[in-house]
Amino acid sequence: MGIDVGNLTQSRATNISNENRHSTVGRTANTAQQAATGKTASTETVSMTDAAINLKKMSKRMEKLPVVDAKRVEQLRKAIENGDFEIDDIHIADKLIGMDKLLRKETN
Q1: How far apart are CA 2 and CA 37, in angstroms?
Q2: Which residue, among 2, 21, 4, 23, has the nearest Cα to 13 in the 3D structure?
Q3: Is 24 helix (H, G, I), strand (E, B) or coil?
Q4: For a Cys staple, 48 with which of 17, 27, 52, 87, CB 3.0–4.6 Å?
C-alpha cells in the first residue's frame, strides 16, 4: 500500500515563496508492489530555505578553519591559573559587533 504524497508536496510548495525555494531534489522509487500493479511511483521533492542554504555555506567555510592550537590553549590556561590573563572588554565587544555584521551580511 503506497502513500500518495503528490498532493501534500504540491500544497506545501504553494505556501513557500519563490525566493525561499532554491535547491530542489527529485526522486522516483518503484516498489515491488508498484511493479506488480503497473502503477508509477510518485515524485518527492525537497526544497531548502535561504537559511538552510546559508547554514550549509557557513558549515563549509568552518571546515576550512584551522584546528585548535594546543600550545596557545595551554598558554592561556596557565595564564588564567596564574592570574595573569587580562580581559580586554573593548576588544571583545568589537569582535562581537564585527561577527554580528558578518552574519547579517551572510543572511542578506
Answers
A1: 11
A2: 21
A3: strand
A4: 52
Q: From CA 36, how far away is CA 32, in angstroms rounded?
A: 6
pLDDT digits (tens, 9 = 90+) for 12-60: 444 444 444 444 455 555 566 666 666 666 778 888 888 999 999 999 9
Residue whose grid cell is 563549509: 60
Tens of pLDDT, residue by residue over 56-71, are 999 999 888 878 888 9
- List, in order, residues 6 or more apart from 13 with CB less than 8 Å away: 21, 45, 47
Give the DSSP H or E segment for 26: strand 24-28
> Who contacts 52 (Cβ-Cβ below 8 Å, separation ≥6)?
none
Q: Compute the distance between CA of residue 45 and CA of residue 67 in angstroms, rounded to an integer.
A: 37
Which has the closest alpha carbon to 15: 49, 43, 42, 51?
49
